[in-house]
């Protein structure tokens, strides 16, 4: 986790966050100066940011919107008040409505970002300055500390070349907290085709099979918000195991980048998980990221103990071949 320290100081009316990264200051600066790179980490997992404007000059404004997994949204704006490339910058950060105007019941804060060389990489210190203790407490109560930590955990992938970051490392599992995990896998193929492989039943049946010896007996995927889906599997021949399946509802679709669904075991009343799939392409490779929210720690550990990640790696290996063959 890049974040090394978080200090809330009611007397100074500040919230300070320190993070360290294995990349030079100039590379860290570029991540904050490019809105397309900012979008990959500014919002915490499950709340990705979209910058709709970005005037990176003193006196200029940047506007962004973060979209939650259930269709929620939160918008903000930056007013750039100081820029010192590549050592840092300062903004006035405001919560805004759909019309871009500041929300009167939400606090504004002055934020300074300072980048400095550190131990072969770089250190970032972000300090948020508030007008009152009440404003500081309001923002902390909204979960900004945990949200910042989780957002910063995404920056390592941005600072590295995507293939350097993920190629050959298989399916990786990160435990973000008691109820959230992040699973990533790089596949060598274009995002459009990876999206189709996740959403078109005739393609899903070719790869989403788990370990050897299993077959997909039912696949009714949907990309329409509000519709339901069902996927079922069964062992083939003498393969041990009992048939099972999952079903759920489509909550959000942003083709070909993101899809959010619920998921529960067929024939049960729950518990359900929230599955947030996102796809990012760079240099012809696509990073698949699946953020899963569990109802509690016990459910998380029970499901992970089934060997789910190993089964996903077997499926992703098939997916990689499935997307390469049509292009060869």
TrEMBL record:
Domain Activator of Hsp90 ATPase homologue 1/2-like C-terminal: 23-159, 190-322
Domain of life from the UniProt record: Bacteria
UniProt xrefs under Pfam families: AHSA1
Alphabetized InterPro entries for the sequence: ASHA1/2-like_C (IPR013538), START-like_dom_sf (IPR023393)
Similarity comment: Belongs to the AHA1 family.
The protein, known as: SRPBCC family protein
């Amino acid at each position: 986790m890049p974040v090394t320290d978080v200090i809330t100081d009611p007397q100074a009316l500040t919230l300070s966050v320190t993070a360290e990264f294995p990349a030079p200051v100039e590379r860290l600066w570029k991540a904050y100066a490019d809105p397309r790179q900012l979008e990959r980490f500014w919002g915490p997992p499950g709340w990705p940011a979209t910058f709709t404007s970005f005037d990176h000059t003193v006196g200029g404004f940047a506007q962004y919107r973060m979209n939650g997994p259930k269709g929620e949204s939160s918008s903000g704006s930056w007013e750039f008040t100081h820029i010192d490339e590549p050592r840092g910058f300062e903004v006035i950060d405001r919560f805004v409505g759909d019309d871009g105007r500041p929300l009167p019941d939400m606090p504004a804060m002055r934020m300074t970002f300072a980048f400095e060389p550190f131990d072969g990489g770089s250190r970032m210190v972000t300090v948020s300055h508030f007008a009152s203790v009440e404003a500081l407490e309001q923002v902390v109560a909204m979960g900004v500390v945990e949200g910042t930590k989780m957002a910063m955990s995404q920056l390592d992938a941005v600072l590295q070349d995507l293939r350097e970051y993920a190629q050959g490392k298989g399916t990786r599992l990160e435990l973000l907290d008691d109820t959230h995990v992040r699973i990533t896998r790089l596949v060598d193929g274009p995002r459009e085709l990876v999206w189709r492989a996740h959403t078109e039943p005739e393609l899903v049946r070719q790869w989403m099979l788990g370990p050897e010896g299993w077959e997909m007996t039912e696949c009714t995927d949907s990309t329409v918000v509000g519709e339901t889906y069902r996927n079922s599997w069964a062992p083939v021949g003498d393969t041990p195991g009992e048939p099972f399946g999952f079903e759920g509802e489509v909550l959000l679709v942003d083709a070909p980048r993101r899809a959010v669904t619920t998921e529960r075991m067929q024939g049960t009343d729950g518990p359900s998980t929230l599955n947030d799939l996102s796809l990012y392409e760079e240099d012809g490779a696509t990073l698949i990221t699946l953020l899963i929210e569990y109802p509690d720690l016990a459910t998380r550990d029970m499901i992970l103990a089934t060997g789910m990640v190993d089964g996903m790696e077997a499926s992703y290996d098939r997916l990689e071949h499935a997307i390469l063959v049509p292009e060869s």
